[in-house]
């Protein structure tokens, strides 16, 4: 009987501590909103640099476009820095920015218009 009570208590503690312990150390399949926003900004920066760099634009113009588009994309991305998002959804948005954003729309419009970048916060894991 005592073993059962200890095991039940351990399982309850593990379940309740899942979000508090596993998410911050990266052992779950979720990404903190601040990290998701940073990944989106990084993908935007890389894509913008490729777009303008391939056009042979002057370095100052490239830098200005990259900074402006990164700021705008970060503002348009519907990501709450304090919540968690599914890693697969964030990765899908980043991939969309790097493909569609590079070839068709540009990063800003990709985040604004595509459904893959319409990220929904993941519910609590209990």
Strand order of the largest sheet: 1-2
Count of helix runs: 5
SSE order, one letter for each helix or strand: HEHHEHH
Structural class: mainly alpha
Instruction: Give the biggest beta sheet.
Output: 2 strands, antiparallel
Count every beta strand, where a strand is a DSSP E run of 2 or more residues.
2
From the alpha carbons, calculate the radius of gyration and give it in angstroms.
19 Å
Spans of at least 5 consecutive residues whose pLDDT stays below 50 are: 20-24
Global geometry: elongated
Task: Look at the structure and give the mean pLDDT.
Answer: 77
Cα distance spanning the termini: 25 Å
Helix percentage range: 55-70%
Strand content: under 5%
What would a concise description of this structure say?
The chain is 67% helix and 5% strand. It has 5 helices and 2 strands. This is TIGR04452 family lipoprotein.
Word description of this protein:
- The chain has helices spanning 2-22, 33-54, 59-76, 87-103, 107-113, and strands at 30-32, 84-86.
- The chain is mainly α.
- The chain has a two-stranded antiparallel ribbon with strand order 1-2.
- Helix 2 runs antiparallel to helix 3 (59-76), helix 3 (59-76) runs parallel beside helix 5 (107-113) and helix 4 (87-103) crosses helix 5.
- The protein starts with a helix and ends in a 13-residue tail after the last helix.
- Residues 20-24 have low confidence and may be disordered.
